[in-house]
Amino acid sequence: TPAPMHARHCKGHSGLWRIVTARTRRQLRDARGRLGANPGHRMLVMHLRTRIFAAAAVSAAFTSPTRAADERARVTALADRFVAAFQENYPVSYAFSGLPVKRSDGIDINSPAAIAQWHALLQGMTAELGSIKPEAFADQPEWVTWQFLNHALRQDAATAICRSELWGDVTALGWQATLPQIASMQPVGTDEARAQALARWRKFGPWIDQEIANLREGQRLGYSATAAAVHSTLGQLDSMLTGAPEKSELMNPTQRDTTPAFLADWTQVITATVWPALERYRAYLRDDYQLHAR
Q: Residue 65 has what pLDDT?
């Protein structure tokens, strides 16, 4: 079944976790410094600032210092809300951002209903950001934050129609490729960290089953990955599932934390929950999905 035309030109997730929060002036100066260190980024910033220079000059003449400070505070607060919401809804993806992580027991949303709620939340943030005019503080760090946040929100709006949750993860670079890395990043070493690790990985079984349901619904609606993408994904899954689960890379946390009880619990989670779910996912791709792939 061919995918809708808009789906054929979509490129998957928008990578919103890359947004840099504006919690402090120091963080923002660092962000500006990183931009300045890259010639391409520096030219982009110069181009953007050139375009708004005249408007900024006029705006500054009619904007009181108090109002400008209020607008800057609103940008920072909105960026903080965005980052907090992303951490809540995509805790695994957030862990790759390099920002401080509060907990490590959550898992990224992947049900269509939850993703629709996420898009709706960002639509509200987009409207709020649009009511803030960055020209009023063009020479301040919050201008950079406004631009980053505006780009992230617009990118989400532009790719929402792709419905990538229904097809876009069938690739050799899909979620299955990151599982060993997630395991290697999973904090352990304390009772609380071990409890959070087990709680997160117990969720991967239902999560993978939701991925299967998403793909099934996607093909019903006309969204589909390519046959080549399915083939490469199956090859990766075959490689991953070769051998015993107890010897797989998913056992990495037990190499860093040899507590006997944790070793037993983690082994049970991998062998009885995660591994069977991966096998169900592979079987679905092999026996059903690829027969209808575009």
A: 63
